[in-house]
Amino acid sequence: MPRPSFYQEEYYPSPMRHTWTDFQRNHIALAGLWCLLFFIVAAFLGPFLVPYGPLQQNTDMLLLAPAWNVNGDISHLFGTDSLGRDILSRIIHGCRITLGTSVILVLIAMLVGCSIGAYAGISRGLRASVINHLLDAIMAIPTLLIAIIIVAILGTGLLNSMWAITLALIPQFIHQTRDLVRREFQKEYIVAARLDGASNHRLLVKDILPNMVEVLVVQATMALSVAILDISALGFLNLGAQSPSPELGTMLSEALDTAYAAPWSVALPGAAIFLMVLSINLVGDGLRTALKNRLLQ
Amino acid sequence: MNSLLTVSGLSYRKQKSGLFSNRELFRLSPLSFELKRGETMAIMGENGSGKSLLAKLLVGVLQPEAGSILLNGEPMCDSRQQRRFSAIRMIFQHSKDSLNPGLTLGGQLEEALILNTNMSATERKRQIENTLVKVGMLPEHQYFYRHMLSEGQHQRAAVARALILDPQVIVADEPFAALDPSVRSQTANLLMNLQQQLGLGFIFISHNLGIVRHISDRILVLEKGKVVESGKTEVIFNWPKSEYTKRTIQAHQELISGQ
């Protein structure tokens, strides 16, 4: 016998779906999301689309103004820098390096931090405390200082600065995850699931993780904006990515010499960093508001 | 007829362990009772008299200090934890909190089946649908999340969760407390019907004397962790012995005759 359908639409929005619907109502956050998506697409596809390589020099056109300037040329949309390299191509490659490395290191920090935090959350007593505060000493030192220490030991380079930032991001993930796991473990649905015979590990993966994903995503967006700022700051200080590399911070410090003659070579990479961080913060903020609204109802 | 659940000498002590001394916070004095198949027992008592604690000891959330719990004459110890989980099921006081907000109702019911039975995916689905229908919900409700269900449906979902493993005993901690009168009587009748159909032993904690009198066969009265009175419902309602029972029953009678 076919079962009669009592509901007009067979649609059961999950809590995650709820958060997304709520997020969509926030137009500014949505604009931020589009902006972020644009940067991600640029990072993935951009290098195949741009006409020049990031290191390719056009010695006939040094310090060319952007195309909208009277002195500009349409062949170099954002102009060129002091070595005749196309700024648009360099910015797009720079998005790839800056955004890409930041995403990778946030993912690593999240994975490590959440595993340690979850373990600290389910263990008890002294051990939990030790694990929880294992990396707390790192929180006391600013990220840049840790990076300088690591760079002093291992030498400069993008990879070394990535290690430093990853290490600096891990403790906040540990704390967040541990607090969440602790809090959820107090709740009655965990007792109920335990009475179904679930082990601690299973409780964590099957029962708590679905309730934790969104909070972790919000945390990850905040960490991402910090990571981008730190990567480019280290690049700017010549401690991270080194000179010919089109990393956005490195580009800024390089262009600083000619900032008076060619302000666009500073302004445009700076604007790229600004927009990237702004869009990520907007998305993170929108997600946080949406999550709070859902948890309040 | 031999008893379904035999509890003898069950005691528990809640301590706060300090650096130098252990301060005793609460003590459940040794208590014993028997529950027959199809029988309903109500546990009554003031707040903080150890009712919920007793329920938690019975289902295995807490480990007793001493004493034994026998199900069909077999002791329920750690090695049989899994059998105990599927034989004695609990309905929580706040049924909403006992449902996971991040999973569908069906997902949670299935989890219990995965962990305790060897059913295939199709059998599990059928069992979930049957159980939902049994407690008066629709099979479609398995796709629902906690926030989409009403208070009464939460209660039914909690009952479904208890029933899905075909238990022999159900322990309910104030299952009717948070419900409005109509849903309360619906749930009470639902539980009574299910009990008659399935021959369950039912232990419940309640403050509501009307319901206690309506559905329970026997009553156990706790006061500060001690059993002060136990016996058949009618006997206790007509000839209460302890001060607390006298007071509550008198208040209840006045309430009824006043209407």
From TrEMBL, chain A:
Topology relative to the membrane: Multi-pass membrane protein
Record's keyword terms, sorted: Cell inner membrane, Cell membrane, Membrane, Transmembrane, Transmembrane helix, Transport
CDD domains: TM_PBP2
InterPro entries on file: BP-dependent_transpt_permease (IPR050366), MetI-like (IPR000515), MetI-like_sf (IPR035906), OppC_N (IPR025966)
SUPFAM superfamilies hit by this protein: MetI-like (SSF161098)
Classification via Pfam families: BPD_transp_1 (PF00528), OppC_N (PF12911)
Transmembrane segments: 28-50, 97-122, 134-155, 216-241, 261-284
UniProt-annotated location(s): Cell inner membrane; Cell membrane
Ranges in coiled-coil conformation: none
Presence of the UniProt keyword Transport in the record: yes
Domain ABC transmembrane type-1: 99-284
PROSITE patterns the record matches: ABC_TM1
Family from the record: Belongs to the binding-protein-dependent transport system permease family. OppBC subfamily.
Record-given protein name: Antimicrobial peptide ABC transporter permease SapC
UniProt source species: Lacimicrobium alkaliphilum
Top-level taxonomy: Bacteria, Pseudomonadati, Pseudomonadota, Gammaproteobacteria, Alteromonadales
TrEMBL record, chain B:
Gene3D superfamilies: P-loop containing nucleotide triphosphate hydrolases (3.40.50.300)
Record-linked InterPro entries: AAA+_ATPase, ABC_transp_ATP-bind, ABC_transporter-like_ATP-bd, P-loop_NTPase
Domain of life from the UniProt record: Bacteria
PROSITE patterns in the record: ABC_TRANSPORTER_2
Keywords recorded for this protein, A-Z: ATP-binding, Nucleotide-binding, Transport
Protein name per UniProt: ABC transporter ATP-binding protein
UniProt cross-references to SUPFAM superfamilies, sorted A to Z: P-loop containing nucleoside triphosphate hydrolases
Pfam family, one: ABC_tran
Any one GO MF annotation of this record: ATP binding
Organism in which the protein naturally occurs: Lacimicrobium alkaliphilum
Domain ABC transporter: 5-249
